[in-house]
Amino acid sequence: MIGFLEKLSLIIAAAGTAMAWLIPYLLGGSSAPEWVISRWYLLVGAPALLFGVQALLRYGDFAKSPAVLLYSGLVACGCLWTDPTEQGRGLLIATAFVMVLPISALIRKYDYLEVFLTTFSVVSAATMIYSFAVAGSLVLKDSLGTTTTNPNGVGIHAGFAALIALMYFRDKARSRQIAMGCMASLLILFSISTASRTAFLSLGGAILVSLFFRKRQSAIRVVILLLLAVTSSIGISEILDVETPFYQGIVSRLIEDEEGTMGTLGDRVQIWDVASSAFWSDTIWMHGAGTGGVDKVLGSLYESKGRAKGRDGIWRIHAHNTLVWSGLAFGMPGILFLVWLAVKMAVRAIQMDSELQGWEHSALVTFIGISSLGGVISQDGCWCVFGSALLAGLSSPVAQLSHRVEYVFRGEGGRNRGAKVFEIFGNGRPRIEWT
Question: Are 121 and 183 in contact (CB under 8 A)?
Answer without folding.
Answer: yes
